[in-house]
User: What shape does this take?
Amino acid sequence: MNVLIPISSNGGEPMDNQPINNTDYTKQQAVAANSAFDEAVKHFLRNWIESGTVADSAKGRDVDSNAGTFTDFVRYASIAEETETFIEEGALRSFFKHHDDALEQLLGHSDIADHLLRQGWAVYFEPDAYEPLLAKFEKRIYNLAVHREHLEIPFRYSPTSRQGTNGDSIGWADLPVDHQVREDIGYYFGTRRSDTTALAILGRQLQREALLADHLPIHVMLEGHMEDSLRAIRTATEQLQADGDRRIHCFVIQRRHAADDRHLGAALLLMNPAQPNQPQRLIFCDTLNPNGQPPWWHSFKRKVDVVFPQPEGTTPVSDRLEDGGVNLQRLHDGVPVRHQDIDCAFYTASMARALIQTAIQQPEVILYGPTDAVVSQMTSRMTDYFESANCPKDPVAVREVNVIRRWNTGREALLNLMRGA
Assistant: This one.
């Protein structure tokens, strides 16, 4: 993959870099592929313009007067020059403005779609910041698409506050002095955080995994934030009680903690329909345990007791809370923000998937096993991030996994558009 990955940081010490060679794809190959892609998009836009836009009507007016004269030739030349300038600058933005299915139309052309849908091995990732080397018009496509509701291409676009008039990304150094953003979070595939589309893709993957359940029914909860999913679990359990269902049900959550907290966590609850106000088991799985306990531990306990209140004088439900977290996410003091590890969406999705697999393959561990047994089973199934149970891989290998997952999540969003999903 030709990525330079920061190995570590020690209290603000300069970071070393180490190349990862996951593919032999070179920068020269990427530049050539990007150039061909830009030409394909410009050809597409040229055909769009010539099929009945302002340029055609202007040419029609010229034909009516001074046809065949030198003046007519100059006017045609001027129109052609203006058209090429328009194609290089604002035509793509205009195309997106005129067509609600602009991205779908572009994906309908094989030479454009093949490039946008290329596999990670056919992408050159720039050293230091892990950015894929994208074509000029490719960046514009992703940036313009994000203005359409729920049609983001995850990890491929710049926030609208970091876009120019024609959809170009604005570098930090080029922002106005009075810009409100206080921190340069870098790009790391455009947006550094998981958007709604990315979380929906990860959620669907988890739901498909849960369909394989047999002995222990499993439900994936993706409602709102963590507290919203807890409420949805209680409501669902009350409905199971009303339906006469007597089986123990397993609920797995992967959500953000709160509206004002972009960090994601995972949780597992075992619910007995006979007691919808008292989870039989409650395991909270975080990805960041810098001091042996997740920083969101007490916040999560409060959420649990709000959703599952108990009579005064009795033991609160949160006292049953088990810590199933792992210290997988690595944030280092003194590291440039663009190097920080904020891939909690992929970590928590991996944890939730492993919990689902454990509940399917070894339900007795989920039902009766101690917390450390659950964590061991979970981490042994997280093969992208762990060498074996409770033994995480080197941060370099973990970063490589996340770089590819970012790319593949965007690719899946594009494939979903093509399928009309």
Summary: The chain is about 45% helix and 10% strand. The CA atoms of residues 293 and 323 lie 8 Å apart. Confidence is low (pLDDT under 50) at residues 1-21, 54-67. The first strand starts at residue 3 and ends at 6.
